[in-house]
Amino acid sequence: MKYYKFEMPRISFLISGLLFCLLISFVGPLFSDTNVRVLDSGTITFQDRRSEFIIAAPHGSYDRYTGKIVTQVCEILFWDCIVATGFSVSGVRLNVNRPTEGAGIKSSSEKQTPRAKEVYVEYKQIIANIAEGKPRLYIEIHGSNNMGIEVATSDISLEHARKLKTILEEEWHKIFDTVSAIKVQKIDRVKKVNAAVKKYGVVADLKMPAIFIELSRNLRDNHTSTLARFLATTLLRVETEIFVAQNRQPDPS
Question: For residues 69 and 32, is the Cβ–Cβ distance under 8 A?
Answer without folding.
Answer: no
